[in-house]
């Protein structure tokens, strides 16, 4: 079975893209023994910092050629410095003694250089710059069941590489009114890019938004439930208009707001390892079951 390549993307910031990539990836690898590769495409390097200890992070800061930014630089400059086997960090996170907590969870780290990458890619209009990530990483994906792309909060050039490379898009979402209006706009922008790029990859002619994940759910009054009901209506409408996949769904359960999420990124551990009794650990375990059933349909 080829790997399923999934972009976690939303042009809104702080909606849980990185949290979903790290924690869903960790549950799929630890509980279900899936082989998961997390690819950090965000100059903020949040997934990288979350999963690495201080020394490894420092090493990556000094070795940008072992991060995703080198992939883009190589294509733009005609160099071949990026070497997947040297760059991939196998079995993250590691215990203080250096043993992998989750042997089948791998990471391709990011570097703040990605900020410059945006400008470099934008200036190169003659090449189909959005194909670069796929060209370099596709040959390495057969070793995995899932490749999760952690995207920056925009749909600029690096994100377009993720949209081109991925088989499916998952939209993390925090339910409020602004997010709802953003969801529709986002679906249109994504579809427009797909239409533009489908000449290079026919698969892009089909809507690829396959799921939404609700994050930071709070059980206070009925504000959140109303927002979720509105999102369900929106998903139904966008499905009927062909802007998202016919089988697109909101994954269950919503990930509840949980104070342990902040402390687990500080401790550089996924929440299931940081505190297996946290409510978000339970939610991510449950969501992984729904995730596997949902993506088995595609
Ligand atoms: N279930 C949760 N409960 C409480 N806090 C959460 C939860 N999920 C995520 N957070 C917090 O919300 C913030 C944003 O989450 P995250 O970094 O995953 O979002 P993002 O979409 O990747 O952000 P960015 O757009 O900056 O990349 C973080 O501080 C994270 O700790
Ligand atoms: Mg993020």
TrEMBL record:
InterPro entries: AAA_dom, DNA_Partitioning_ATPase, P-loop_NTPase
Domain AAA: 3-196
UniProt xrefs under PANTHER family: COBYRINIC ACID AC-DIAMIDE SYNTHASE, P-LOOP CONTAINING NUCLEOSIDE TRIPHOSPHATE HYDROLASE
Protein name per the record: Chromosome partitioning protein
């Amino acid at each position: 079975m080829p790997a399923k390549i999934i972009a976690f993307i939303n042009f809104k910031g702080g909606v849980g893209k990185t949290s979903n990539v790290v924690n869903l990836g960790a549950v799929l690898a630890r509980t279900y023994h899936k082989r998961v590769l997390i690819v950090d495409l965000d100059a903020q390097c949040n997934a990288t910092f979350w999963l690495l200890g201080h020394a490894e992070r420092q090493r990556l800061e000094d070795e940008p050629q072992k991060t995703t930014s080198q992939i883009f630089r190589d294509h733009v400059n005609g160099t071949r410095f990026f070497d997947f086997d040297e760059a991939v960090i196998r079995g993250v996170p590691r215990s203080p003694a250096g043993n992998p907590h989750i042997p089948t969870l791998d990471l391709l780290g990011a570097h703040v250089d990605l900020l410059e990458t945006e400008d470099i890619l934008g200036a190169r209009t003659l090449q189909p710059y959005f194909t670069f990530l796929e060209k370099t990483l596709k040959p390495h994906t057969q070793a995995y069941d899932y490749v999760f792309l952690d995207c920056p909060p925009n749909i600029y050039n690096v994100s377009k590489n993720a949209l081109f490379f991925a088989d499916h898009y998952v939209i993390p979402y925090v339910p409020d009114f602004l997010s709802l209006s953003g969801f529709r706009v986002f679906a249109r922008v994504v579809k427009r890019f797909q239409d533009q790029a489908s000449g290079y990859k026919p698969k892009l002619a089909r809507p690829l938004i396959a799921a939404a994940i609700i994050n930071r759910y709070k059980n206070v009054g009925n504000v959140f439930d109303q927002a979720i009901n509105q999102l369900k209506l929106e998903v139904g409408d966008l499905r009927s208009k062909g802007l998202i996949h016919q089988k697109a769904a909101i994954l269950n359960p919503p990930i509840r707001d949980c104070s342990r999420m902040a402390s687990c990124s500080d401790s550089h551990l996924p929440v299931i390892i940081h505190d297996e009794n946290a409510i978000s650990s339970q939610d991510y375990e449950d969501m992984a079951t729904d995730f596997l059933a949902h993506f088995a349909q595609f």
